[in-house]
Amino acid sequence: MAEASARYAPAAEKPRPRVRNFDVRRLPGFGAVAIFTFVMLYAPILILVVFSFNAAPSQATWGGFSLQWYEAAFNNRQVREVSIRSLWLALVASGIATTVATLAALGTTRVRRFPGQTMIYALINQPLMVPEIVTGVALLIFFAAIKVQTGYTGMGYLVAAHTAFCIPFAYLPIRARLETMDITLERAAADLYASPFQAFRHVTLPLLVPGIMAGFMLGFVISLDAVVITEFVKSAGQDTLPTYMLGQLRRNITPEMNAIATLFLALSLCIVTAFFLLTRKRG
Amino acid sequence: MAEPRESHRWKWLLCAPALTILVLAASGPLLIVLVYSFLTPGNMGGVVWQFSTDGWFRVFFRRDIFSPEDVSWNTAHLTIFWRSIWLSLQTTVICAVLGFPTAWFIATRPANTRTVWLFLITIPFWTNLLIRTFAIQELIRNSGTINTLLLWAGVIDAPIQMLFSEFAILIGMAYVFLPLMVLPLYAAMDKLDFRLVEAGYDLYASRLQVLRHVILPLVKPGFIAGSILVFIPSIGAYVTPRVLGGGRTMMLGNLIDLQFGQGRNWPLGAALAITLLVIVVAALLFYLRTLNREEGGRHG
Protein backbone atom coordinates (compact mmCIF):
# COMPACT_ATOMS: atom_id res chain seq x y z
CA MET A 1 0.00 0.00 0.00
CA ALA A 2 2.80 2.36 0.96
CA GLU A 3 4.52 1.80 -2.34
CA ALA A 4 1.37 2.41 -4.31
CA SER A 5 0.61 5.66 -2.57
CA ALA A 6 4.18 6.78 -3.12
CA ARG A 7 3.76 6.20 -6.84
CA TYR A 8 0.67 8.36 -6.93
CA ALA A 9 2.17 11.03 -4.64
CA PRO A 10 1.39 14.58 -5.80
CA ALA A 11 4.01 16.40 -7.81
CA ALA A 12 5.92 19.11 -6.06
CA GLU A 13 4.32 22.25 -7.37
CA LYS A 14 0.55 21.65 -7.34
CA PRO A 15 -1.79 19.14 -5.65
CA ARG A 16 -3.20 16.97 -8.45
CA PRO A 17 -6.62 15.35 -8.42
CA ARG A 18 -6.64 11.95 -6.82
CA VAL A 19 -7.21 9.91 -9.96
CA ARG A 20 -5.63 10.51 -13.35
CA ASN A 21 -5.95 8.63 -16.62
CA PHE A 22 -9.52 8.17 -15.64
CA ASP A 23 -11.48 6.48 -18.44
CA VAL A 24 -14.93 8.08 -18.53
CA ARG A 25 -16.17 5.27 -20.78
CA ARG A 26 -15.38 2.57 -18.25
CA LEU A 27 -18.08 1.23 -15.96
CA PRO A 28 -16.84 -1.49 -13.62
CA GLY A 29 -18.30 -4.94 -14.23
CA PHE A 30 -19.96 -3.99 -17.52
CA GLY A 31 -17.29 -5.69 -19.61
CA ALA A 32 -17.70 -8.90 -17.63
CA VAL A 33 -21.49 -8.89 -18.07
CA ALA A 34 -21.08 -8.19 -21.79
CA ILE A 35 -18.66 -11.10 -22.26
CA PHE A 36 -21.02 -13.31 -20.25
CA THR A 37 -23.88 -12.26 -22.55
CA PHE A 38 -21.90 -13.01 -25.70
CA VAL A 39 -20.90 -16.43 -24.36
CA MET A 40 -24.51 -17.16 -23.39
CA LEU A 41 -25.69 -16.05 -26.81
CA TYR A 42 -23.36 -18.38 -28.70
CA ALA A 43 -22.85 -21.35 -26.37
CA PRO A 44 -26.22 -23.03 -27.06
CA ILE A 45 -25.79 -22.65 -30.83
CA LEU A 46 -22.20 -23.94 -30.73
CA ILE A 47 -23.24 -26.98 -28.65
CA LEU A 48 -25.99 -27.65 -31.17
CA VAL A 49 -23.49 -27.52 -34.04
CA VAL A 50 -20.87 -29.65 -32.25
CA PHE A 51 -23.34 -32.44 -31.47
CA SER A 52 -24.46 -32.59 -35.09
CA PHE A 53 -21.07 -34.27 -35.67
CA ASN A 54 -21.57 -36.72 -32.81
CA ALA A 55 -21.19 -40.42 -33.60
CA ALA A 56 -23.39 -41.35 -30.63
CA PRO A 57 -27.14 -40.74 -30.93
CA SER A 58 -27.11 -38.31 -28.00
CA GLN A 59 -27.19 -34.57 -27.37
CA ALA A 60 -25.05 -34.83 -24.28
CA THR A 61 -22.38 -37.55 -24.50
CA TRP A 62 -19.68 -37.36 -27.14
CA GLY A 63 -19.04 -40.55 -29.07
CA GLY A 64 -16.50 -39.35 -31.59
CA PHE A 65 -16.68 -37.42 -34.86
CA SER A 66 -19.07 -38.59 -37.54
CA LEU A 67 -20.96 -37.24 -40.52
CA GLN A 68 -23.64 -39.93 -40.31
CA TRP A 69 -26.41 -37.51 -39.27
CA TYR A 70 -25.75 -35.31 -42.28
CA GLU A 71 -25.91 -38.42 -44.41
CA ALA A 72 -29.17 -39.39 -42.72
CA ALA A 73 -30.60 -35.91 -43.31
CA PHE A 74 -29.65 -35.99 -47.01
CA ASN A 75 -31.15 -39.44 -47.41
CA ASN A 76 -34.37 -38.44 -45.66
CA ARG A 77 -36.83 -37.88 -48.50
CA GLN A 78 -39.17 -35.79 -46.38
CA VAL A 79 -36.36 -33.46 -45.32
CA ARG A 80 -35.31 -32.97 -48.95
CA GLU A 81 -38.90 -32.29 -49.95
CA VAL A 82 -39.61 -29.67 -47.24
CA SER A 83 -36.22 -28.00 -47.81
CA ILE A 84 -36.89 -27.57 -51.51
CA ARG A 85 -40.39 -26.26 -50.74
CA SER A 86 -38.95 -23.76 -48.24
CA LEU A 87 -36.34 -22.48 -50.67
CA TRP A 88 -38.83 -22.24 -53.52
CA LEU A 89 -41.31 -20.38 -51.34
CA ALA A 90 -38.67 -17.98 -50.02
CA LEU A 91 -37.43 -17.29 -53.55
CA VAL A 92 -40.89 -16.62 -54.99
CA ALA A 93 -42.32 -14.69 -52.03
CA SER A 94 -39.25 -12.55 -51.55
CA GLY A 95 -38.99 -11.96 -55.31
CA ILE A 96 -42.56 -10.67 -55.54
CA ALA A 97 -42.20 -8.72 -52.29
CA THR A 98 -39.02 -7.02 -53.50
CA THR A 99 -40.59 -6.06 -56.82
CA VAL A 100 -43.70 -4.48 -55.32
CA ALA A 101 -41.69 -2.94 -52.45
CA THR A 102 -39.34 -1.28 -54.98
CA LEU A 103 -42.31 0.27 -56.74
CA ALA A 104 -43.82 1.39 -53.43
CA ALA A 105 -40.50 2.86 -52.32
CA LEU A 106 -40.28 4.84 -55.58
CA GLY A 107 -43.81 6.10 -54.97
CA THR A 108 -43.27 7.18 -51.36
CA THR A 109 -39.65 8.34 -51.20
CA ARG A 110 -38.25 11.68 -52.43
CA VAL A 111 -41.76 12.92 -53.24
CA ARG A 112 -43.78 15.72 -51.74
CA ARG A 113 -46.03 14.46 -48.97
CA PHE A 114 -49.39 13.49 -50.31
CA PRO A 115 -52.72 12.65 -48.70
CA GLY A 116 -52.85 9.02 -47.62
CA GLN A 117 -49.08 8.63 -47.28
CA THR A 118 -49.32 7.95 -43.54
CA MET A 119 -51.90 5.27 -44.24
CA ILE A 120 -49.57 3.66 -46.80
CA TYR A 121 -46.75 3.61 -44.24
CA ALA A 122 -49.08 2.09 -41.65
CA LEU A 123 -50.20 -0.62 -44.10
CA ILE A 124 -46.64 -1.46 -45.14
CA ASN A 125 -45.35 -1.65 -41.58
CA GLN A 126 -48.39 -3.42 -40.17
CA PRO A 127 -46.94 -6.97 -40.43
CA LEU A 128 -44.05 -5.80 -38.21
CA MET A 129 -46.36 -4.79 -35.37
CA VAL A 130 -49.08 -7.42 -35.31
CA PRO A 131 -48.06 -10.61 -33.46
CA GLU A 132 -47.45 -13.47 -35.89
CA ILE A 133 -50.02 -15.66 -34.15
CA VAL A 134 -52.74 -13.05 -34.81
CA THR A 135 -51.80 -12.77 -38.49
CA GLY A 136 -51.70 -16.57 -38.65
CA VAL A 137 -55.19 -16.93 -37.21
CA ALA A 138 -56.53 -14.18 -39.47
CA LEU A 139 -55.12 -15.87 -42.56
CA LEU A 140 -56.40 -19.25 -41.43
CA ILE A 141 -59.94 -17.89 -41.17
CA PHE A 142 -59.79 -15.91 -44.42
CA PHE A 143 -58.15 -18.63 -46.52
CA ALA A 144 -60.44 -21.33 -45.07
CA ALA A 145 -63.39 -19.35 -46.40
CA ILE A 146 -61.74 -18.99 -49.82
CA LYS A 147 -60.88 -22.71 -49.91
CA VAL A 148 -64.53 -23.59 -49.31
CA GLN A 149 -65.67 -21.18 -52.04
CA THR A 150 -63.11 -22.03 -54.73
CA GLY A 151 -61.82 -25.48 -53.82
CA TYR A 152 -58.27 -24.29 -54.54
CA THR A 153 -55.75 -25.69 -52.04
CA GLY A 154 -52.44 -24.99 -53.80
CA MET A 155 -49.33 -23.09 -52.75
CA GLY A 156 -50.93 -19.73 -53.63
CA TYR A 157 -52.03 -19.13 -50.03
CA LEU A 158 -48.53 -19.64 -48.65
CA VAL A 159 -47.04 -17.43 -51.39
CA ALA A 160 -49.52 -14.63 -50.62
CA ALA A 161 -48.99 -14.88 -46.85
CA HIS A 162 -45.20 -14.94 -47.11
CA THR A 163 -45.13 -12.13 -49.66
CA ALA A 164 -47.21 -9.82 -47.44
CA PHE A 165 -45.00 -10.68 -44.49
CA CYS A 166 -41.80 -9.93 -46.46
CA ILE A 167 -42.89 -6.59 -47.93
CA PRO A 168 -41.91 -4.38 -44.93
CA PHE A 169 -38.52 -6.07 -44.69
CA ALA A 170 -37.86 -5.59 -48.39
CA TYR A 171 -39.19 -2.02 -48.34
CA LEU A 172 -36.97 -0.65 -45.55
CA PRO A 173 -33.49 -1.08 -47.13
CA ILE A 174 -34.74 -0.01 -50.57
CA ARG A 175 -36.23 3.15 -49.11
CA ALA A 176 -33.07 3.83 -47.11
CA ARG A 177 -31.01 3.51 -50.29
CA LEU A 178 -33.32 5.84 -52.23
CA GLU A 179 -33.21 8.47 -49.51
CA THR A 180 -29.41 8.68 -49.50
CA MET A 181 -29.16 8.66 -53.30
CA ASP A 182 -27.81 11.72 -55.11
CA ILE A 183 -30.79 13.25 -56.88
CA THR A 184 -28.56 15.54 -59.00
CA LEU A 185 -27.51 12.57 -61.13
CA GLU A 186 -31.06 12.09 -62.31
CA ARG A 187 -31.38 15.82 -62.91
CA ALA A 188 -28.22 15.64 -65.01
CA ALA A 189 -29.72 12.79 -67.03
CA ALA A 190 -32.87 14.82 -67.59
CA ASP A 191 -30.75 17.81 -68.63
CA LEU A 192 -29.09 15.58 -71.20
CA TYR A 193 -32.50 14.89 -72.75
CA ALA A 194 -33.04 11.47 -71.21
CA SER A 195 -36.71 10.57 -71.02
CA PRO A 196 -38.01 9.83 -67.48
CA PHE A 197 -37.93 6.13 -68.34
CA GLN A 198 -34.37 6.30 -69.70
CA ALA A 199 -33.24 8.22 -66.61
CA PHE A 200 -34.81 5.56 -64.41
CA ARG A 201 -33.44 2.66 -66.44
CA HIS A 202 -29.86 3.92 -66.78
CA VAL A 203 -29.37 6.08 -63.67
CA THR A 204 -31.81 5.39 -60.84
CA LEU A 205 -32.11 1.62 -61.17
CA PRO A 206 -28.37 0.79 -61.29
CA LEU A 207 -27.81 2.99 -58.23
CA LEU A 208 -30.70 1.30 -56.47
CA VAL A 209 -29.48 -2.27 -57.08
CA PRO A 210 -27.63 -2.72 -53.75
CA GLY A 211 -30.78 -1.64 -51.87
CA ILE A 212 -32.94 -4.01 -53.92
CA MET A 213 -30.49 -6.88 -53.31
CA ALA A 214 -30.45 -6.15 -49.58
CA GLY A 215 -34.25 -6.05 -49.50
CA PHE A 216 -34.44 -9.33 -51.37
CA MET A 217 -32.04 -11.04 -48.95
CA LEU A 218 -33.88 -9.80 -45.87
CA GLY A 219 -37.16 -10.97 -47.36
CA PHE A 220 -35.60 -14.34 -48.23
CA VAL A 221 -34.36 -14.91 -44.67
CA ILE A 222 -37.67 -13.76 -43.19
CA SER A 223 -39.66 -16.12 -45.42
CA LEU A 224 -37.26 -18.98 -44.69
CA ASP A 225 -37.70 -18.44 -40.93
CA ALA A 226 -41.47 -17.84 -40.91
CA VAL A 227 -42.92 -20.67 -38.87
CA VAL A 228 -46.12 -19.47 -37.15
CA ILE A 229 -47.79 -18.04 -40.26
CA THR A 230 -46.82 -21.11 -42.30
CA GLU A 231 -48.13 -23.45 -39.60
CA PHE A 232 -51.57 -21.81 -39.79
CA VAL A 233 -51.80 -21.30 -43.55
CA LYS A 234 -50.38 -24.59 -44.90
CA SER A 235 -52.68 -27.27 -46.22
CA ALA A 236 -51.93 -30.97 -45.81
CA GLY A 237 -48.59 -31.91 -47.39
CA GLN A 238 -47.33 -28.32 -47.54
CA ASP A 239 -44.85 -28.47 -44.69
CA THR A 240 -41.83 -26.20 -44.94
CA LEU A 241 -38.54 -26.87 -43.18
CA PRO A 242 -39.46 -24.86 -40.03
CA THR A 243 -42.92 -26.41 -39.64
CA TYR A 244 -41.43 -29.87 -40.25
CA MET A 245 -38.88 -29.22 -37.50
CA LEU A 246 -41.56 -27.87 -35.16
CA GLY A 247 -43.50 -31.10 -35.65
CA GLN A 248 -40.39 -33.25 -35.06
CA LEU A 249 -39.47 -31.44 -31.82
CA ARG A 250 -42.37 -33.22 -30.13
CA ARG A 251 -40.84 -36.62 -30.94
CA ASN A 252 -37.68 -38.27 -29.76
CA ILE A 253 -34.95 -36.18 -31.24
CA THR A 254 -31.79 -37.58 -32.81
CA PRO A 255 -28.73 -35.55 -33.86
CA GLU A 256 -30.18 -35.62 -37.37
CA MET A 257 -32.16 -32.59 -36.22
CA ASN A 258 -28.88 -30.93 -35.18
CA ALA A 259 -27.48 -31.59 -38.63
CA ILE A 260 -30.52 -30.06 -40.35
CA ALA A 261 -30.41 -27.07 -37.98
CA THR A 262 -26.68 -26.58 -38.63
CA LEU A 263 -27.18 -26.53 -42.40
CA PHE A 264 -30.07 -24.10 -41.96
CA LEU A 265 -27.88 -21.88 -39.73
CA ALA A 266 -25.07 -21.94 -42.29
CA LEU A 267 -27.41 -20.79 -45.05
CA SER A 268 -28.81 -17.94 -42.91
CA LEU A 269 -25.30 -16.91 -41.90
CA CYS A 270 -24.17 -16.69 -45.54
CA ILE A 271 -27.13 -14.51 -46.47
CA VAL A 272 -26.77 -12.22 -43.45
CA THR A 273 -23.04 -11.77 -44.08
CA ALA A 274 -23.72 -10.89 -47.71
CA PHE A 275 -26.38 -8.45 -46.55
CA PHE A 276 -23.93 -6.78 -44.18
CA LEU A 277 -21.23 -6.39 -46.81
CA LEU A 278 -23.78 -5.04 -49.25
CA THR A 279 -25.21 -2.40 -46.92
CA ARG A 280 -21.85 -1.42 -45.45
CA LYS A 281 -20.42 -0.26 -48.78
CA ARG A 282 -22.87 2.60 -48.70
CA GLY A 283 -21.54 4.01 -45.44
CA MET B 1 -44.00 20.65 -62.03
CA ALA B 2 -46.94 18.61 -63.10
CA GLU B 3 -50.38 19.26 -61.81
CA PRO B 4 -50.56 17.96 -58.20
CA ARG B 5 -53.46 15.64 -58.75
CA GLU B 6 -51.75 14.03 -61.71
CA SER B 7 -48.55 13.46 -59.73
CA HIS B 8 -50.43 11.88 -56.81
CA ARG B 9 -51.95 9.38 -59.17
CA TRP B 10 -48.62 7.83 -60.21
CA LYS B 11 -47.56 7.58 -56.57
CA TRP B 12 -50.69 5.60 -55.78
CA LEU B 13 -50.19 3.47 -58.88
CA LEU B 14 -46.66 2.59 -57.79
CA CYS B 15 -47.90 1.63 -54.33
CA ALA B 16 -50.95 -0.24 -55.60
CA PRO B 17 -49.43 -3.74 -56.04
CA ALA B 18 -47.84 -3.74 -52.57
CA LEU B 19 -51.00 -2.36 -50.95
CA THR B 20 -53.20 -4.93 -52.69
CA ILE B 21 -51.13 -7.82 -51.35
CA LEU B 22 -50.99 -6.29 -47.87
CA VAL B 23 -54.73 -5.66 -47.71
CA LEU B 24 -55.53 -9.15 -49.01
CA ALA B 25 -53.03 -11.13 -46.92
CA ALA B 26 -52.37 -9.00 -43.84
CA SER B 27 -54.69 -6.14 -42.89
CA GLY B 28 -57.98 -7.25 -44.40
CA PRO B 29 -58.09 -10.64 -42.67
CA LEU B 30 -57.63 -8.86 -39.31
CA LEU B 31 -61.05 -7.26 -39.80
CA ILE B 32 -62.50 -10.69 -40.55
CA VAL B 33 -61.14 -11.91 -37.20
CA LEU B 34 -63.12 -9.15 -35.52
CA VAL B 35 -66.28 -10.26 -37.34
CA TYR B 36 -65.70 -13.93 -36.48
CA SER B 37 -65.35 -13.12 -32.78
CA PHE B 38 -69.07 -12.20 -32.81
CA LEU B 39 -70.31 -15.42 -34.47
CA THR B 40 -71.42 -18.83 -33.19
CA PRO B 41 -68.95 -21.75 -33.25
CA GLY B 42 -69.64 -24.61 -35.65
CA ASN B 43 -69.61 -28.20 -34.43
CA MET B 44 -66.51 -29.24 -36.37
CA GLY B 45 -64.65 -25.93 -36.10
CA GLY B 46 -65.46 -22.99 -38.32
CA VAL B 47 -68.46 -20.79 -37.59
CA VAL B 48 -72.20 -20.56 -38.01
CA TRP B 49 -73.31 -17.14 -39.29
CA GLN B 50 -75.34 -16.18 -36.28
CA PHE B 51 -74.55 -13.21 -34.04
CA SER B 52 -73.30 -14.10 -30.58
CA THR B 53 -71.22 -12.47 -27.87
CA ASP B 54 -70.47 -15.83 -26.30
CA GLY B 55 -66.90 -15.89 -27.64
CA TRP B 56 -66.11 -12.60 -25.91
CA PHE B 57 -67.96 -13.72 -22.77
CA ARG B 58 -65.80 -16.83 -22.54
CA VAL B 59 -62.57 -14.85 -22.78
CA PHE B 60 -63.03 -13.76 -19.17
CA PHE B 61 -66.02 -15.67 -17.74
CA ARG B 62 -67.53 -19.11 -17.70
CA ARG B 63 -70.93 -20.56 -17.02
CA ASP B 64 -71.56 -23.56 -14.87
CA ILE B 65 -72.53 -26.52 -17.10
CA PHE B 66 -75.49 -27.52 -14.93
CA SER B 67 -76.78 -24.12 -13.91
CA PRO B 68 -76.03 -21.65 -16.75
CA GLU B 69 -77.04 -18.69 -14.56
CA ASP B 70 -74.04 -19.41 -12.39
CA VAL B 71 -71.33 -17.16 -13.87
CA SER B 72 -67.79 -17.08 -12.57
CA TRP B 73 -64.41 -15.77 -13.72
CA ASN B 74 -62.65 -18.05 -16.17
CA THR B 75 -59.65 -18.63 -13.94
CA ALA B 76 -57.89 -20.89 -16.46
CA HIS B 77 -57.85 -18.04 -18.99
CA LEU B 78 -56.99 -15.39 -16.42
CA THR B 79 -54.03 -17.52 -15.29
CA ILE B 80 -52.77 -17.65 -18.87
CA PHE B 81 -53.26 -13.89 -19.33
CA TRP B 82 -51.38 -13.21 -16.13
CA ARG B 83 -48.61 -15.67 -17.03
CA SER B 84 -48.19 -14.08 -20.48
CA ILE B 85 -47.94 -10.56 -19.08
CA TRP B 86 -45.78 -11.52 -16.10
CA LEU B 87 -43.34 -13.64 -18.16
CA SER B 88 -43.10 -10.89 -20.79
CA LEU B 89 -42.29 -8.27 -18.15
CA GLN B 90 -39.69 -10.55 -16.58
CA THR B 91 -38.19 -11.22 -20.02
CA THR B 92 -37.98 -7.47 -20.64
CA VAL B 93 -36.19 -6.92 -17.31
CA ILE B 94 -33.69 -9.75 -17.89
CA CYS B 95 -32.96 -8.44 -21.39
CA ALA B 96 -32.49 -4.91 -20.01
CA VAL B 97 -30.15 -6.06 -17.21
CA LEU B 98 -27.98 -8.06 -19.63
CA GLY B 99 -28.49 -5.78 -22.63
CA PHE B 100 -27.45 -2.50 -21.06
CA PRO B 101 -23.87 -3.53 -20.15
CA THR B 102 -23.57 -5.35 -23.47
CA ALA B 103 -24.66 -2.32 -25.50
CA TRP B 104 -22.34 -0.12 -23.41
CA PHE B 105 -19.47 -2.52 -24.04
CA ILE B 106 -20.07 -2.40 -27.81
CA ALA B 107 -20.50 1.39 -27.87
CA THR B 108 -17.19 1.94 -26.06
CA ARG B 109 -15.10 -0.32 -28.34
CA PRO B 110 -12.74 1.33 -30.85
CA ALA B 111 -14.52 2.11 -34.13
CA ASN B 112 -12.85 -0.68 -36.12
CA THR B 113 -13.86 -3.55 -33.79
CA ARG B 114 -17.27 -2.09 -32.95
CA THR B 115 -18.73 -3.34 -36.26
CA VAL B 116 -17.58 -6.88 -35.44
CA TRP B 117 -19.25 -6.87 -32.01
CA LEU B 118 -22.38 -5.39 -33.51
CA PHE B 119 -22.38 -8.08 -36.18
CA LEU B 120 -22.09 -10.73 -33.45
CA ILE B 121 -25.25 -9.37 -31.83
CA THR B 122 -27.07 -9.22 -35.17
CA ILE B 123 -26.34 -12.82 -36.27
CA PRO B 124 -28.59 -14.50 -33.67
CA PHE B 125 -31.25 -11.92 -34.47
CA TRP B 126 -31.38 -13.16 -38.07
CA THR B 127 -31.04 -16.86 -37.37
CA ASN B 128 -34.16 -18.92 -37.13
CA LEU B 129 -36.05 -18.46 -33.86
CA LEU B 130 -37.10 -22.11 -33.91
CA ILE B 131 -33.48 -23.29 -34.13
CA ARG B 132 -32.45 -21.04 -31.23
CA THR B 133 -35.36 -22.38 -29.18
CA PHE B 134 -34.33 -25.92 -30.12
CA ALA B 135 -30.78 -25.13 -28.93
CA ILE B 136 -32.15 -24.08 -25.52
CA GLN B 137 -34.32 -27.21 -25.37
CA GLU B 138 -31.26 -29.40 -25.96
CA LEU B 139 -29.43 -27.51 -23.23
CA ILE B 140 -32.01 -27.82 -20.45
CA ARG B 141 -33.81 -31.10 -21.12
CA ASN B 142 -33.42 -33.92 -18.60
CA SER B 143 -30.84 -35.71 -20.77
CA GLY B 144 -29.45 -32.40 -22.01
CA THR B 145 -26.06 -30.74 -21.73
CA ILE B 146 -26.56 -28.98 -18.38
CA ASN B 147 -28.01 -31.97 -16.55
CA THR B 148 -25.36 -34.31 -17.99
CA LEU B 149 -22.58 -31.99 -16.86
CA LEU B 150 -24.05 -31.58 -13.38
CA LEU B 151 -24.55 -35.34 -13.01
CA TRP B 152 -21.01 -35.99 -14.21
CA ALA B 153 -19.62 -33.45 -11.75
CA GLY B 154 -21.59 -35.06 -8.96
CA VAL B 155 -23.47 -31.88 -8.06
CA ILE B 156 -26.82 -33.59 -8.45
CA ASP B 157 -27.98 -37.21 -8.23
CA ALA B 158 -31.00 -36.96 -10.51
CA PRO B 159 -31.60 -34.61 -13.44
CA ILE B 160 -33.31 -31.32 -12.60
CA GLN B 161 -36.62 -30.92 -14.42
CA MET B 162 -36.22 -27.58 -16.19
CA LEU B 163 -38.02 -28.17 -19.48
CA PHE B 164 -41.81 -27.66 -19.63
CA SER B 165 -41.92 -24.95 -16.98
CA GLU B 166 -42.34 -21.18 -16.76
CA PHE B 167 -38.63 -21.01 -16.02
CA ALA B 168 -37.87 -22.69 -19.35
CA ILE B 169 -40.11 -20.24 -21.24
CA LEU B 170 -38.45 -17.32 -19.46
CA ILE B 171 -34.93 -18.49 -20.32
CA GLY B 172 -35.96 -19.17 -23.90
CA MET B 173 -37.66 -15.82 -24.47
CA ALA B 174 -34.82 -13.85 -22.86
CA TYR B 175 -32.41 -15.77 -25.08
CA VAL B 176 -34.22 -15.26 -28.38
CA PHE B 177 -35.29 -11.63 -27.83
CA LEU B 178 -32.09 -10.24 -26.25
CA PRO B 179 -30.71 -8.74 -29.52
CA LEU B 180 -33.92 -6.68 -29.80
CA MET B 181 -32.92 -4.91 -26.56
CA VAL B 182 -29.23 -4.49 -27.35
CA LEU B 183 -29.67 -2.91 -30.80
CA PRO B 184 -31.80 0.15 -29.83
CA LEU B 185 -29.75 0.63 -26.65
CA TYR B 186 -26.60 0.65 -28.75
CA ALA B 187 -28.18 3.15 -31.16
CA ALA B 188 -28.89 5.49 -28.22
CA MET B 189 -25.39 5.08 -26.76
CA ASP B 190 -23.77 5.62 -30.14
CA LYS B 191 -25.17 9.16 -30.11
CA LEU B 192 -24.20 9.73 -26.49
CA ASP B 193 -21.99 12.79 -25.95
CA PHE B 194 -19.25 11.48 -23.66
CA ARG B 195 -18.27 15.04 -22.73
CA LEU B 196 -21.40 15.09 -20.59
CA VAL B 197 -20.21 11.96 -18.77
CA GLU B 198 -16.82 13.59 -18.29
CA ALA B 199 -18.48 16.74 -16.97
CA GLY B 200 -20.28 14.61 -14.39
CA TYR B 201 -17.01 13.16 -13.15
CA ASP B 202 -15.40 16.61 -13.14
CA LEU B 203 -18.14 17.72 -10.78
CA TYR B 204 -17.10 14.96 -8.36
CA ALA B 205 -19.94 12.57 -9.15
CA SER B 206 -19.25 8.93 -8.34
CA ARG B 207 -19.59 6.28 -11.07
CA LEU B 208 -22.97 5.30 -9.70
CA GLN B 209 -24.16 8.91 -9.69
CA VAL B 210 -22.96 9.45 -13.27
CA LEU B 211 -24.71 6.26 -14.34
CA ARG B 212 -27.92 7.24 -12.59
CA HIS B 213 -28.09 10.96 -13.35
CA VAL B 214 -26.23 11.33 -16.66
CA ILE B 215 -26.07 8.10 -18.66
CA LEU B 216 -29.45 6.54 -17.87
CA PRO B 217 -31.51 9.68 -18.64
CA LEU B 218 -29.63 10.12 -21.93
CA VAL B 219 -30.14 6.55 -23.15
CA LYS B 220 -33.70 6.30 -21.83
CA PRO B 221 -35.26 6.46 -25.34
CA GLY B 222 -33.17 3.41 -26.27
CA PHE B 223 -34.36 1.64 -23.15
CA ILE B 224 -37.99 2.37 -23.94
CA ALA B 225 -37.63 1.28 -27.57
CA GLY B 226 -35.80 -1.90 -26.55
CA SER B 227 -38.38 -2.72 -23.90
CA ILE B 228 -41.24 -2.40 -26.34
CA LEU B 229 -39.38 -4.44 -28.97
CA VAL B 230 -38.88 -7.25 -26.43
CA PHE B 231 -42.28 -7.02 -24.75
CA ILE B 232 -44.39 -7.19 -27.93
CA PRO B 233 -42.99 -10.45 -29.37
CA SER B 234 -42.90 -11.91 -25.84
CA ILE B 235 -46.58 -11.32 -25.17
CA GLY B 236 -47.44 -12.79 -28.58
CA ALA B 237 -44.95 -15.67 -28.30
CA TYR B 238 -46.11 -18.99 -29.68
CA VAL B 239 -43.12 -21.13 -30.68
CA THR B 240 -41.05 -20.67 -27.50
CA PRO B 241 -43.83 -21.58 -25.02
CA ARG B 242 -44.93 -24.43 -27.29
CA VAL B 243 -41.48 -25.99 -27.42
CA LEU B 244 -40.21 -25.11 -23.94
CA GLY B 245 -43.44 -24.80 -21.94
CA GLY B 246 -45.19 -27.92 -23.13
CA GLY B 247 -48.93 -28.45 -23.00
CA ARG B 248 -49.61 -27.32 -19.45
CA THR B 249 -47.60 -24.09 -19.31
CA MET B 250 -49.44 -22.25 -22.05
CA MET B 251 -49.20 -18.62 -23.03
CA LEU B 252 -51.78 -16.50 -24.83
CA GLY B 253 -50.52 -17.55 -28.27
CA ASN B 254 -50.95 -21.24 -27.45
CA LEU B 255 -54.41 -20.65 -25.98
CA ILE B 256 -55.45 -18.99 -29.25
CA ASP B 257 -53.99 -21.89 -31.22
CA LEU B 258 -55.88 -24.36 -29.04
CA GLN B 259 -59.26 -22.80 -29.98
CA PHE B 260 -58.56 -23.40 -33.67
CA GLY B 261 -57.42 -26.97 -33.03
CA GLN B 262 -58.82 -29.25 -30.36
CA GLY B 263 -60.95 -26.51 -28.77
CA ARG B 264 -62.99 -26.05 -31.97
CA ASN B 265 -64.19 -22.65 -30.85
CA TRP B 266 -63.16 -20.21 -33.55
CA PRO B 267 -65.15 -17.24 -32.17
CA LEU B 268 -63.41 -17.60 -28.80
CA GLY B 269 -60.05 -17.94 -30.57
CA ALA B 270 -60.84 -14.82 -32.63
CA ALA B 271 -61.84 -12.88 -29.50
CA LEU B 272 -58.62 -13.96 -27.77
CA ALA B 273 -56.59 -12.90 -30.83
CA ILE B 274 -58.24 -9.46 -30.80
CA THR B 275 -57.53 -9.21 -27.05
CA LEU B 276 -53.87 -9.93 -27.70
CA LEU B 277 -53.86 -7.32 -30.46
CA VAL B 278 -55.40 -4.76 -28.07
CA ILE B 279 -52.64 -5.43 -25.50
CA VAL B 280 -50.00 -4.94 -28.21
CA VAL B 281 -51.59 -1.71 -29.49
CA ALA B 282 -51.86 -0.43 -25.89
CA ALA B 283 -48.15 -1.13 -25.38
CA LEU B 284 -47.34 0.68 -28.66
CA LEU B 285 -49.46 3.70 -27.71
CA PHE B 286 -47.79 3.81 -24.30
CA TYR B 287 -44.45 3.77 -26.12
CA LEU B 288 -45.42 6.61 -28.49
CA ARG B 289 -46.72 8.71 -25.61
CA THR B 290 -43.55 8.21 -23.57
CA LEU B 291 -41.47 9.00 -26.63
CA ASN B 292 -43.36 12.23 -27.28
CA ARG B 293 -43.05 13.26 -23.65
CA GLU B 294 -39.32 12.53 -23.74
CA GLU B 295 -38.79 14.57 -26.88
CA GLY B 296 -41.03 17.36 -25.63
CA GLY B 297 -38.99 17.48 -22.44
CA ARG B 298 -35.73 17.55 -24.39
CA HIS B 299 -36.59 20.50 -26.60
CA GLY B 300 -38.99 22.35 -24.36
How would you explain this protein's 3D organization?
- The complex is a heterodimer of chains A (283) and B (300).
- Helix content of chain A is 72%, strand content 0%.
- Chain A has two domains: 30-66, no CATH class; 78-280, MetI-like (MetI-like fold), CATH 1.10.3720.
- The radius of gyration of chain A is 27 Å and the shape is globular.
- The two termini of chain A are 50 Å apart.
- Chain A contains twelve helices and no strands.
- Chain A is mostly helical and 283 residues long.
- In chain A, 39% of the residues are buried.
- Chain B has helices at residues 4-36, 54-60, 75-107, 111-126, 129-140, 145-153, 166-190, 194-202, 207-235, 239-245, 252-260, 266-299, and strands spanning 40-41, 47-48, 61-63, 71-73.
- Chain B starts with a helix and ends with a helix.
- Chain B has twelve helices and four strands, in the order αββαββαααααααααα.
- Chain B is globular and about 75 Å long.
- In chain B, helix 2 packs across helix 12 and helix 3 packs parallel to helix 7 (166-190).
- Chain B is mainly α and 300 residues long.
- In chain B, strand 3 and strand 4 (71-73) form a beta hairpin.
- Helix content of chain B is 74%, strand content 3%.
- Chain B has one domain: MetI-like fold (Orthogonal Bundle).
- The chains are: A mainly alpha (283), B mainly alpha (300).
- At the A-B interface, helix 2, helix 4, helix 5, helix 6 and helix 7 of A face helix 1, helix 3, helix 4, helix 5 and helix 6 of B.
